[in-house]
Amino acid sequence: MPEYRTHTRPESRASTEAQEESAWRVVVLNDPVNLMSYVVMVFKKVLGFDESKARKHMLEVHEQGRSVVWTGVRETAEAHVFTLQQWHLTAVLEPDETR
Predict the structure, then answer these.
(1) Domains of the chain: which residue ranges?
(2) Could you give the C-alpha distances from 32 to 6, 39, 54, in angstroms and in order?
(3) pLDDT at position 9 over 70
């Protein structure tokens, strides 16, 4: 019997791996609803920030309208966005094009 081989095109495998390994940003946007102290508490609970880091990011959200609170693989970024949204923060996922 003849031996059959299947080949995966290297460029398709490389592009899939690049998409999986590309970095994503979790961005929290300003909203008129949540108190600053509440946002600090959520950052500490959800992202494990200490008080100082949580306040820094809260102030960025308040003063600049947004803060990148986490960068990494897409699956984890999506989980952070979902959890932050469950705490009623306005969080979005965007590609990190700086890498």
Answers:
(1) 22-95
(2) 56, 12, 18
(3) no
